[in-house]
Structures are given as structure tokens and as C-alpha cells.
What does this fold into?
Amino acid sequence: METSPRWSSPAGALGRLATGTPYLTALTRRFPDPARISGDHELHRTGADTPVRQVIHEDRLSEVAGIPAWLLTVGGGLPAAVAAVALLVVRRSRRAVIPPPPVRPPPPITPSAPLG
It folds into this structure.
């Protein structure tokens, strides 16, 4: 939030910084990931004391019949995925089991006449 309060008699270090400027801009910033900061803020004097226009961003959830849309997506997609997996499991368990062909023993070896 940015504000520009007026003041009449600046004093101390702040007064020396604001010499010739009867207003001060206050800044408030939040940095959720300080490691991504690549430099310092640079503050510069402006030529005029123009009014600050405060901008307020208001985020709203998309809703369907009062229910958040993301909840409907997750709430509808998850049961559909579970139903699909259950259908695959049931179909595989109902397949006819075909037994392997019987194993026949090899024919017996008959002795042959001696070589000679």
C-alpha cells in the first residue's frame, strides 16, 4: 500500500533526506521468496506532489452454485479416475481362465540293435 501523508516540519536524518519535499511516500512490500530478490529498491524524488491512486486487487474464486469450481473439478475427476480403475480390475478378474495344454510325456526310447 502506498500513501503520501503531508508533514510540516521534518527533522533529523529523515528531514535532511526530504529537504525541499513536504511529503513522504511510505512503501510496504512482502517478499514470499527472498532468494529471488536480485537488487535493492531505488527511491527517487518526483517533481510534484501528485495524489496517489491506490489500487486494490481482489481475487475471487470461480463458483458454480456456490461451490468453488476447483473443488468440483477435483471432486468430480477423482471419483471418475477411481471408477475407471475399478472397472479395469473387475474386467480383468472376470476373464475366462484358459488352462495350459496338458503336458504329454515324450514317447519311450526303444533300444536299438547293437552296433557292430
Observations:
- The chain has a mean pLDDT of 77.
